[in-house]
UniProtKB/TrEMBL annotation:
PROSITE patterns: ILVD_EDD_1 (PS00886). Residues 50-364 form the Dihydroxy-acid/6-phosphogluconate dehydratase N-terminal domain. Residues 1-20 have a biased composition (Polar residues). Belongs to the IlvD/Edd family. Residues 374-581 form the Dihydroxy-acid/6-phosphogluconate dehydratase C-terminal domain. One of its GO terms (molecular function) is metal ion binding. This is Dihydroxy-acid dehydratase family protein. Keywords: Iron, Iron-sulfur, Lyase, Metal-binding. The keyword Membrane does not apply. Residues 1-21 are annotated as: Disordered.
Length: 591
């Protein structure tokens, strides 16, 4: 492997000394030095051979989920200094999942690119990655993967549990549920707002097993965080203590030259896939882990997710698949307790994979007890068996992910109960071109949506809706909700919030906007999904499909909205599909 931007052979000096202590170029050394002296650092410190440690700060007023990192950074700095390093805190392009339009995932690759430039271009020997809200974790791990200087992640931690009238209210999950109740006229707008606000009671990220808890848990499972770090709620004292320990540890990692490529190996990704099934992780996880792997040159695709993850049971009882929230997960033992259960059952494939503290994941977790057996179950008595993803393929797309752990009893009874064909369902397609089209037409009786309809959302992949929107989980029309039908199968080339429990087929690649099979689908087509075979097809002849394709090409292809910003245009021109991590194609060669 060549061209590892930050690679430092054990025998050479610290990377930062190329800037601050380079006897071959005293003029440039002086120029580099003088500006960092102007706020009180001394020449002695900068030329002492102490490691310079970046703190990649993702907290800001625009990023409430990660805002607490502004406080935690004080403890990170203290840890760095206690271990003999010099901290350099700097801002990362903000990514707030709920506030960014058109979608926060447009910004993952932008934050990645910018952080690569910072890590490569400044005198940093190692970096603490402050992670939390959904896309911040993959963006920062991707950059660390590309530059490959010693790096450790620090989660900001989940919010405290939300409560309303004696019931746990979980981020996102309660919003989807309350929106249905609002639409069905069961509650008014004020009560709706009160319930939704109750789910966000403190600093921190989403307290459900959404994309944030998933990605932070997987950062720990990959070995990129200290053991036990992911689950500590943001306001707890242990969170500040973990920040201090993380700061201390990164200095040793620089001294040991322990780099992302040493930790995030193929084996570590295989462990993470298994952990993802066990925790009931988000369907965004394959997108982000495949992306991180590509930036390391590690082979990983959606077939691996099914092969390694599908048969693993769900053992963590967190919403949306279960009932508890982030505080409960922490009290039960967090990620180390989950890994311990997997180790006991012999299900974790690579106990020897090395982690950020220099020990193996097996050694870190083997003796960890589960402190609440209702929140973290055993592999022998799980919440659900075979809870991983299925990777569907057919004439609709080459790859799409279905999260089997959230398929409800209602859905199973209605769609998967045919004794001759227990894992297949067929339905009539109702097709929407983007979320605006869905909102405009979903209540239109002329669509004839009934219990046997399958809702399709297209034009929402990385190119179509730049960045790929979280819009595939579509609420049925009010008339069906009133009849008690709470979910229809949804299929699309966009994504779904990790906090949603809808039985959806997601991340379809290639997307309609680049000529994928979804672009050829028409209202009223019969579609068949077979979970056992892993197939998803429009039930029409090859000839008909081909003539539709030619008609589409003649029409100039599937139309998508104009670019609204320069980045939308730049990214659209070079972004890969969701199955391949939605990475910037030219960036993956820098490894
Ligand atoms: Fe930021 Fe969920 S919106 S973590
Ligand atoms: Mg999300």
């Amino acid at each position: 492997m060549t061209n590892r931007l930050g690679r430092r052979p054990q025998t050479t000096k610290l990377r930062s000394q190329q800037w601050f202590d380079n006897p071959d170029d005293p003029g440039m050394t002086a120029l580099y030095l003088e500006r960092y002296l102007n706020y009180g650092l001394t020449r002695d410190e900068l030329q002492s051979g102490k490691p310079l440690i970046g703190i990649a700060q993702t907290g800001s007023d625009l990023s409430p989920c990660n805002r607490h990192h502004l406080d935690l950074a004080r403890r990170v700095r203290a840890g760095i200094e206690a271990a003999g390093g010099i901290p350099f805190e700097f801002p990362v392009h903000p990514i707030q999942e709920t506030g960014k339009r058109p979608t926060a995932s447009l910004d993952r690759n932008l934050a990645y690119l910018a952080l690569v430039e910072v890590l490569y271009g400044y005198p940093l020997d190692g970096v603490v990655l402050t992670v939390g809200c959904d896309k911040t974790t993959p963006a920062l791990l991707m950059a660390a993967a590309t530059v490959n200087i010693p790096a450790i992640a620090l989660s900001v931690g989940p919010m405290l549990n939300g409560w309303h009238k004696g019931r746990r209210t979980g981020s996102g999950t309660i919003v989807w549920e309350s929106r249905e109740r609002l639409a069905a006229g069961e509650i008014g707008y004020d009560e709706f707002m009160e319930i939704v606000a109750s789910s966000a009671p403190s600093v921190g990220y989403c307290n459900t097993m959404g994309t944030a808890t998933t990605m932070n848990s997987l950062a720990e499972a990959l070995g990129m965080q200290l053991p036990g770090s992911a689950a500590i709620p943001a306001p707890y004292r242990e969170r500040g203590q973990m920040a201090y320990q993380t700061g201390k540890r990164i200095v040793s990692m620089v001294n040991e030259d322990l780099k992302p490529s040493d930790i995030m190996t193929r084996e570590a990704f295989e462990n993470a896939i298994v952990v993802n099934s066990a925790i009931g992780g988000s369907t965004n996880a394959p997108i982000h882990l495949n992306a991180i792997a590509r930036h390391l040159g590690v082979r990983l695709d959606n077939d691996d997710w099914q092969k390694l993850g599908h048969d693993v049971p769900l053992i963590v009882n967190l919403q949306p698949a279960g009932e508890y929230l982030g505080e409960d997960f922490h009290h039960a033992g967090g990620v180390p307790a989950v890994v311990s259960q997997l180790l006991k059952a012999g299900v974790l494939p690579h106990p020897d994979a090395v982690t950020a503290n220099g020990r193996s994941i097996g050694d870190n977790c083997r003796d960890v007890e589960t402190l609440d057996a209702d929140v973290i179950r055993t592999v022998a008595e799980p919440l659900r068996p075979r809870a991983g993803f299925i990777n569907l393929k057919g004439n609709l797309f080459e790859s799409a992910i279905m999260k089997t752990s959230v398929i409800s009893k209602e859905f199973r009874d209605r769609y998967l109960s045919n004794p001759d064909d227990p894992e297949a369902f067929e339905g009539r397609a109702v097709v929407f071109d983007g979320p605006e089209d869905y909102h405009a037409r979903i209540e239109d009786p002329a669509l004839g949506i009934d219990e046997n309809s399958i809702l399709f959302m297209r034009g929402t992949g990385p190119v179509g809706y730049p960045g790929a929107a979280e819009v595939v989980n579509m609420q049925p029309p009010a008339a069906l909700l009133k009849k008690g039908v709470h979910a229809l199968p949804c299929i699309g080339d966009g994504r779904q919030s990790g906090t949603s429990g809808s039985p959806s087929v997601l991340n379809a690649s290639p997307e309609a906007a680049v000529g994928g099979g979804l672009a050829l689908l028409r209202d009223g087509d019969r579609v068949r999904i077979d979970l056992k075979k892993g197939s998803a097809d429009i039930l029409i002849s090859k000839d008909e499909l081909e003539s539709r394709r030619q008609a589409l090409v003649k029409d100039g292809g599937y139309a998508f909205p104009e670019h609204q910003t320069p980045w939308q245009e730049i990214q659209r021109a070079m972004v890969d599909q969701l199955a391949d991590g939605m990475v910037l194609k030219p960036a993956v060669k820098f490894q």
